[in-house]
Amino acid sequence: MRHVIIACDFKDKQELDTFLETLQNEKPYLKIGMEIFYKEGPQLVKELKRKGYKIFLDLKLHDIPTTVKKAMKNLGSLGADIINIHAAGGIKMMQYAKEGLRESGSSALLIAVTQLTSISEEILHNELLISSSIEETVKQYAINAKNAGLDGVVCSPLEAPIIKRIGLLSVTPGIRFSDGAANDQVRIATPEYAKELGSDFIVVGRSITQAENPYEAYKRCVKEFS
Which of 93, 132, 165, 178 would staple 65 via disulfide (CB 3.0–4.6 Å)? Predict the structure, then answer.
């Protein structure tokens, strides 16, 4: 079953609460990322779970394996439904992350970021000095994630077909309506196109959170992705 996740990239809980009021009685999947988590802390995740929201905790852990394992054990206790790490940390780091998550008693999906949707081929080659294409890099990172026992990866919707062939879930940001702006992302798709490509979850931010009517924008997104 496909899900629309709203990226709650707000500066604090007050902004988030104001936004959630616009959604009436809907209880969508929410992405809690660095900006608001570092401001409000773990308690925010616990509170949102008590209110009935599903949570994608988007902190992209990337450190030495032991540190990631210990951090994941703490994050797992918060009750999030999806938690991510960065595949660039390697297979051992991802394995340790899974161990820490399971030791916490959490049954959350563990997924790995492959390449950010803001990364272009030019940045990949000239700044990161990775000679392979984005597609090849995403594929290899996804294979590593599968070998580490993870459930899925974060990738652009354009790479979702690759991930499906590997046998993992795909969580895809970079979603814009056909009449929306790309902003700072370069590998993007509409909800309808993401569905055609095989995305399992789409992450939608400004197209909903900054819409004139967020409730209608959310319902439109769900309809186009269903």
Answer: 93
The number of helix segments (H) and strand segments (E) in the chain equals: 11, 8
- The catalytically annotated residue of 13, 49, 60, 73 is 60
User: Which pTM does this prediction carry?
Assistant: 0.94
Closest to 56 (Cα-Cα) out of 8, 16, 89, 90? 8
* pLDDT (tens place) for every residue of the chain, 226 residues total: 799 999 999 999 999 999 999 999 999 999 999 999 999 999 999 999 999 999 999 999 999 999 999 999 999 999 999 999 999 999 999 999 999 999 999 999 999 999 987 889 999 999 999 999 999 999 999 999 999 999 999 999 999 999 999 999 999 998 999 886 555 555 679 999 999 999 999 999 999 999 999 999 999 999 999 9
Asked if 60 is an active-site residue, the reply is yes
CA angle 79, 113, 159 (to 5 degrees): 125
Distances from the Cα of 96 to the Cα of 56, 57, 60, 91, 157, angstroms: 20, 18, 14, 9, 27
Task: Tell me the residue ranges of DSSP E strands in 69-210.
Answer: 82-86, 109-113, 152-154, 169-172, 201-204
